[in-house]
Amino acid sequence: MNSISGYQVLGELYRGDDTVILRAIDPENERPVILKTLAEDNPGPEKLFRLHHQYSLTQGLSHPGLLPCYGLEYWNQKPVLILEDSQEISLEHYLESHSLTLQDCLAIALELADVLLLLAQHGICHNAIRDTHVLIEPQSLRVRLIDFSQACWGESGNTQDFQDLGKLLYHLLRKLFSLPPLAETSLSSFASMPQGGVTCVLPGDLNLPLPGSLLAILQRLLDQSGLCQYPNALSLQRDLRHCLCQLEQTGSLLHCTAALELPQRENAFALASLLPRFERLAATLDPDELLQECFRCLMNYTGADRCAFAQVNVGSH
Predict the structure, then answer these.
(1) How far apart are CA 265 and CA 271, in angstroms?
(2) 65 falls in which pLDDT band (50, 70, 90)?
(3) Buried b / exposed e across 256-295, counting CB within 10 Å, b at 16+?
């Protein structure tokens, strides 16, 4: 295989059951590119749709944290995605031989949070944020989110993307703080950790030697209840920037506790906006109807709004 759709193939980077990723040169301008196509010679309609779907999701996106997509072409009746070849390596590969500082970990999380903000603005959920789907430039440590094969249109502030970013941040912090592996069964433990103090630990015998602010960020990212998860990527960016600022100014997160107070502040703002609505409902509905309406509203809210609405109702009975 010396050429595909007119591109000079230099080598194969990855071959899976469904896709093949190749490094190539565009002969028209001698620009290095990445070609992503299907592995099967005669793929079915569903697999053909996947590459078209990835292209439709990403073609209108422009962000330093995303890999530019130059176009979608056809070769042997198969779609071929043409992507920028940035010569970067996967974060997974980088971590095999390099270490990150705490500041590096937070900076990477902040860059990815900025990407999530853009995706949310376009109604896109990535659904697969992990170290294999993040490219890193070894010198600058700039990162980019790649592989939209599992992405979909969805609501802003997708829960799965926040949880995946939380898992990735925990993974980056493991070597720094000698943390145990994060098992799926332990994710609910983060949702049950107390808020408002700097000594949050997982229940039982497992104490995590992390600064309270980092525990608070992980708690909100990994929350599965929807009660204290970040309402949007802007809130996450605010916490990460606060921690980075404290690190730069003091070299430590020992006294960086402001992030732990953020859920309460968000709840207070949400509470102020929801209380008048609840009072109007209480004045017009009988107790049974009011209870049904409260449950309906509770299921429609997320994050701080859901927590605040629950507080309104609990405090009223």
Answers:
(1) 10
(2) very high
(3) bbebbebbeebbeebbeebbeebeeeeeeeeeeebeeebe
Three-state secondary structure call for residue 173 = helix
Question: pLDDT per residue over 200-253, tens digit each?
Answer: 333 333 467 888 888 889 988 888 766 678 888 998 999 999 999 989 988 888
Phi, psi angle pair for 41, to nearest 5°: -75, -35
% of the chain with per-residue pLDDT over 90: 44
* Beta-strand relationship, 124-125 and 89-90: unpaired
Give the relative orientation of helices 102-121 and 159-177 as an angle to the nearest 10 degrees.
170
Distance CA 151, CA 128 (A): 7
> What are the angstrom distances between the C-alpha of 188 and each of 1, 151, 185, 225?
49, 24, 7, 8
Non-local CB neighbours of 179 within 8 Å, separated by 6+ positions: 170, 173, 208, 209, 210
The rounded distance, in Å, linking the Cα atoms of 30 and 24 is 10
- Looking at residue 7, what is its pLDDT? 92
CA dihedral 52, 58, 143, 259 (to 10 degrees): -120
Residue 301 and residue 309 in contact, taking contact as beta carbons nearer than 8 Å: yes
